[in-house]
Amino acid sequence: MGGVQDRTDIGQRYVFICGLHRSGTSLLGRNIAKLDECTGFKDTGATEDEGQFLQDVYPISKVFGGAGKFGFDPRAHLTETSSLVTPENALKLRQSWERYWDQSKAIRVEKTPGNLLKTRFLQAMFPDSYFIVVRRHPVPVSMASQRWKINTTSLHRLLEHWLHCHDLFEQDKKYLTHLYELTYESYIADPTRYHEEIARFIGTSVPVGAMEKVDVTHNQKYLGRWRDLLETSFFKVYYRHIARKYDPRFAKYGYSLTKGLGVAEEVLKRRGQASAALGAVCCLGADVSAFLLRFGLRARWCLKRGTKAVLPKFVMTRVRQRRRLSLSKGKTTVVSPGGCTH
Predict the structure, then answer these.
(1) Are 197 and 114 in contact (CB under 8 A)?
(2) Helix, strand, coil percentages for the chain (3-state, nearest 5)
(3) Which of 81, 157, 184, 256 is the most buried (most CB within 10 A)?
(4) Max CA-CA distance within the chain?
(5) Nearest Cα to Cα of residue 161 among 51, 267, 77, 36
């Protein structure tokens, strides 16, 4: 299909790496950028060297809630019908990124998780672009998102977000001209195979000994934690409820929240009106807890900001000086996991 980009980029190819946060996009993006004739973003100063932070044509994912939330905002889903698709914006976007790419390389690689919901938009802005979409088991994606920085989203909402975003992409992908899909699990099991296939897909080759090694342990670590939650957690009613609720929906993507984990399946199959009702109450409780955590963090941030605005400048300067002095003398306060100070 046609696009709005001018044709001064003849001979260049644009490759977009797509997938939810914590799906392996960073590792995959770095390795694709190592292929012959490829160039990606490196040492830009932006978080994970993501292209979204190096432009101002479209809003970054944080505007829509960030990891685990952005897909629920309809504004995060961009297609060729977006008002942002103009020749002027296409040129502006390309120029924003060109300064970070090696101009001697013909294949430009850009990685941003939010690309998963912008494939049609990016294709309109960069005609004949290539899309590489990686999908990872929803448990590691969701649990890693909860542990990443500060994420105050309940687990079932993160699972729902995974499904929502991939369902939208399933609708969008029929419009894409050049698309390559893979799973994180398959990639880490045989990276050499996928590097070769991706290289053929984008029209290049794999250099000898240049690719970054992959770690196969992360998935099993999160799946082990999920198994423990199902079996021994004080809130196992909640975890078993969401496992039963979402498992059929993940099946179409080849994943399961219940099978192959070593959990007694007869326990997970127990259900009934009382069990379903209690599970729903637990979901509500998880959402309330997440809300209270967000509210507390927001209140603390507002208080800190308000204090800085009210206190005289010389007082804040004095506070910063005392803090630096304390750090230089090694008098930092250490907080134990139990909340006690030492």
Answers:
(1) no
(2) 55, 10, 35
(3) 184
(4) 66
(5) 77
Q: Which residues pair with 188 in a beta bridge?
A: none
Length of the chain: 342
Burial 111-144 (b: 16+ CB within 10 A, else e): bbbbbbbbbbbbbbbbbebbbbbbbbbbbbbbbb
Full set of structural domains in the chain with CATH: 12-214 (3.40.50.300), 219-285 (no CATH)
The CA-based dihedral angle spanning residues 153, 154, 155, 160, taken in that order and rounded to the nearest 10 degrees: -80
The encoded tokens of residue 237 equal 């009613």
Say how far apart CA 34 and CA 145 lie, in whole Å: 27
- Percent of the chain beyond pLDDT 90? 63
Least confident of 38-52, 228-242, 284-298: 284-298
Write out pLDDT tens, residues 242-290. Answer: 999 999 999 999 999 998 887 766 656 655 444 666 666 766 665 665 5
Q: In the prediction, which pLDDT does 4 show?
A: 55
> In sequence order, what E strands does 161-269 have?
179-183
pLDDT at 114 over 70: yes
Helix residue ranges, H only, 99-137? 119-125
Contact 284, 293 (CB under 8 A): no
1: pLDDT strictly greater than 50: no
Over the stretch 5-32, which tens digit does the pLDDT of each residue have?
444 455 799 999 999 999 999 999 999 9
The SS3 of residue 248 is helix
